[in-house]
Amino acid sequence: MKKICTLFMVVCLAVLAASAQSLTPKTDSTVTTKHTVTINGKRVPYTATAGTQPVWDEEGKAIAGLFYTYYERSDVKDRSSRPLVISFNGGPGSASVWMHIAYTGPRLLNIDEEGYPLQPYGIKENPHSILDVADIVYVNPVNTGLSRAVSTLSKEDVQKKFFGINADIKYLAGWINTFVGRKGRWDSPKYLIGESYGTTRVSGLALELQNAHWMYLNGVILVSPTELGIKRDGPVGAANMLPYYAATAWFHKALSPDLQQQDLTAMLPEVEEFTINELIPAITKGGSLDAQKKKQIAARMAHYAGLSEEVILQHNLNVPAPFFWKELLRKEGFTVGRLDSRYIGIDKQDAGLRPDYAAELTSWLHSFTPAINLYIKDHLKYKTDIKYNMFGPVRPWDNSDDNTGDNLRQAMAQNPNLHLMVQSGYYDGACDYFNAKYNMWQMDPSGRLQDRMRFKGYRSGHMMYLRSEDLATSNQDIREFIKDSLPKPGQPAKYTRERSRTTATSQVVK
Asked: Is the whole model's pTM more than 0.70, yes or no?
């Protein structure tokens, strides 16, 4: 009996030790599995490597382990011409889960055609993944996903080294340098893709990689971009939301017949022109605006936004976005989603200035959380008891000195091979499509970079790829962008005076 008890205690201690070990963040680990996926009707074999790679400090010590998943097509022998796409999500504090298992990766979570949760939860093949044309790595910054700083760092050191616009850019650039070296991808064409705050991240990384690591990119893809440090306070910030309001009202059939009968993309240019040519100047005048003119402007805004003229006048032509989300369908007892206005919610009461909760984000967490946990452990075979942070603790975040939009412009100016594509959903109220266009106009006031910029809009929200039709279109847009941004063999990266003259008169991004 004593021997049995002793054996039982040994087993228990072993189990506890194993459990403790699995809760200790690993700074360097890999698990590789082999798979196939059918993309556009063709079978594509690939390897998936899930693991952690260290972040090194100035003395060469590991101060964090970033969790990543790397997909590499396995039937390609020469990777010198094989593009590598490095993918980040946003937050800050958000894991790379969103684009990983819903957009560009070889596997998709189980959702319906419009992006709503389905049970049983699970994973299926992504027939639109870009893995047929590019290898992809999904990176989780510190405290997102399974990424963690080492336990020996103080809270203050973690804050200083990881949680801020420029600190984030600096350490991630170093991490990418290590990854590219380890995987032998220095000669590959390289692309960054970021979503939401990830667009701030990759815009800054483009210049940091170029100037601090001498790593030159072929393309940057901004999905639902943030402000990128480009200020739009005052009248511009107030006015620029109107095209998004119009798109949302159109989706919910809240507009008058003359607008509702038009297609969305046929109607929006009229609203954009009004915003630029009439609304911004009117709001700029403030209290000096003639009362009759103010009433006329309010009437036009009401016509485009699906709101009452009275409500717009009460806000002095400046309708806050949270109020719009609450007001548009108030009489029907619904709110509309911030990140995707196609989603509707139900509040405790119809009165109020903003929705009680984010209907769209609640829905997304419902479907993504079980899917990514199942996928990592059951499909990728990466075993750990560490909690997967969909949103991790990274606050307070240092937002000072945000020059990321200009950093991206500078990187493009220095590198003639660097191209930009922006992808936006018309129903995104957090990072709206019209301000995404505004970014591009202000990034390049000379107009000389316009031939390397392109904008693509989609009939969905912040994560436009959740809608199956947009999933196919947006991935194909990335394929075409990669193809178009790859220089021809022997083509030098240089400017010519002829090209400069032609580009200076090129058409502004539409």
From this structure: yes
